[in-house]
Amino acid sequence: MESSEEGTAGDLTSTAPPIPVERGRLVGLDGIRGVAALFVMVHHCWLLSFPGYPASTGPGWLGWLLYGHFAVVVFIVLSGFSLAVSPARSGWRLGGARRFARRRAWRILPPYWAALAFSLVIAWTLVSQPGEGAPTAKSVLVYGLLLQDLFGAPSPNGAFWSIAVEAQLYLAFPLLLLVLRRAGAIVMLVAVTVVVAAIGVLAPSVHLVDMLMRLTPQFAVLFAVGVVAAGVIGAGERARRLPWHWLALLAAVPVFAVIVIRGSVWTVEHYFWIDIALGPAVGLLLAGVVTGRPAPLVRLLDLRPIRTLGSFSYTLYLIHAPIVVVLFQMVVAPHLPTGLPSFLTVLAIAAPVSLLTARAFAAVFELPFQRHRSRSALRAAVRARLARMRAAVRPAP
Questions:
Q1: Within the chain, what is the greatest distance between any pair of CA atoms?
Q2: What would the pLDDT profile of 134-193 be if each residue is shown by its tens digit?
Q3: Separation of alpha carbons 29 and 26, rounded Å
Q4: 3-state secondary structure string, the chain?
Q5: Is 0.85 topped by the overall pTM?
Q6: Which residues contact 113 (CB under 8 A, 6 or more apart)?
Q7: pLDDT > 90: what percent of the chain?
Q8: Do residues 255 and 274 make contact, with C-beta atoms less than 8 angstroms apart?
Q9: What's the alpha-carbon Rg for the chain, to the nearest Å?
């Protein structure tokens, strides 16, 4: 869910189409992050306005907003893809598991812990999350240690469930690269898929296996799909010229056809298998975007407002849920019945408030840790900023 690739785009010596790069970032990926985070926020507005989930109780033309879960599918595939960019250029070598773990913790934990504190304050003083009681001391411990998918506790933030899953996938990342390097991408992906599929098959009849479903194991397949898709970065001309975007469409059409035919209740109940089926389409789309296709989509994702949104998409994902709930429960619900009027109203209020708050929040708790990748670098940047501020207010001689 967080932004920024572990590596930067280097020079490519083949005659293949160049990978679109701007300021060390792969063009389009930040835009995808931003759009996905925005979709999750709109999804939560929809959930509050049209009760009855997983049944679709709103207008048919808004039915697609029920599936905010699929934005998380995109985030997980994109996370595996982004983290694998640098290894894909260096023989699938990580450059040290300890260094990787330290950089991941530095990148995701400061904004997460700040968002946790923000969410706890709102839940304790204003409104708890729907269906949850006030957070307890156990909530602070469980969510602070990213163990919310293992232990139950009142949630201070409805979006936090996926952060624990992603953090656990980071722990598996070095092993995935090791298998990929020694046995190949197909073997790695098949091995992960077989293990996860076995869990899905056995879970309904074996209680111990069913307990593993709390970990959302299908996300391991999605993460592995992203890692494999990143291989396009270091691939030769022939592979990069493949019509990845059309292959993505071909992979997605059957999945969406099943969703339309079976309906929302069945789909939500079978997210485990739907997620696995949708993963390849997302991976293929990412491969297409980083190779510049389809060009109209890449240009759209690279528009400055969408790029900017992507730069603080992690923070937007982290803090929007308490904001949406407070505005709905305290401003909209007392004056409007649930339905389309309440949805349009809460969306009109919550979208700008969430975006502006997230941008300010990210300026303090996310972007500095993204730009300065160590404690010493951050301290030096803070000292330099303070020195400039003192110089600016010092009276002229």
A1: 82
A2: 999 999 999 999 999 999 899 999 999 999 999 999 999 999 999 999 999 999 999 999
A3: 6
A4: CCCCCCCCCCCCCCCCCCCCEECCEECCHHHHHHHHHHHHHHHHHHHHHCCCCCCCCCCHHHHHHHCCHHHHHHHHHHHHHHHHHHHHHCCCCCCCHHHHHHHHHHHHHHHHHHHHHHHHHHHHHCCCCCCCCCCCHHHHHHHHCCCCCCCCCCCCCCCCHHHHHHHHHHHHHHHHHHHHHHHCHHHHHHHHHHHHHHHHHHCCCCHHHHHHHHHCCHHHHHHHHHHHHHHHHHCCHHHHCCCHHHHHHHHHHHHHHHHHHHHHHHHHHCHHHHHHHHHHHHHHHHHHHHCCCCHHHHHHHCCHHHHHHHHCHHHHHHHHHHHHHHHHHHHHCCCCCCCHHHHHHHHHHHHHHHHHHHHHHHHHHCHHHHHCCCHHHHHHHHHHHHHHHHHHHCCCC
A5: yes
A6: 144
A7: 81
A8: yes
A9: 22
Tokens of 351: 């979208």
Name the residue type at position 189.
L
Q: Which amino acid is at 140?
A: V
Identity (one letter) of the amino acid at 35? V
